[in-house]
Amino acid sequence: MKLENDKAGQEIYTFMFMDGIVFKVKDDGEIIKKTAYVVLGVNIDGFKEVLGIYRWGMSSKMCKQ
């Protein structure tokens, strides 16, 4: 997995985890879903590091199809 503009390329990680949470927000009168993703890496010393936090949105109309 390649992470842009983050420190993932600077160190070796034995494990990587990705998790996300979905929020429903109102934008211009329309309910849309926004997802926040967190990418964690465990380095060779066993320490967890946050490698990045990303967000992504999708309209509710697209989700119903």
Automatic annotation (TrEMBL):
GO-annotated biological processes: DNA transposition
Source superkingdom: Bacteria
Keyword field: DNA recombination, DNA-binding, Transposable element, Transposition
InterPro entries: Transposase_mutator
GO molecular function: DNA binding; transposase activity
Pfam families per the UniProt record, alphabetical: Transposase_mut
PANTHER family: MUTATOR FAMILY TRANSPOSASE (PTHR33217:SF8), TRANSPOSASE FOR INSERTION SEQUENCE ELEMENT IS1081 (PTHR33217)
Family: Belongs to the transposase mutator family.
Function: Required for the transposition of the insertion element.
UniProt-recorded name of the protein: Mutator family transposase
Source organism of the structure: Tepiditoga spiralis
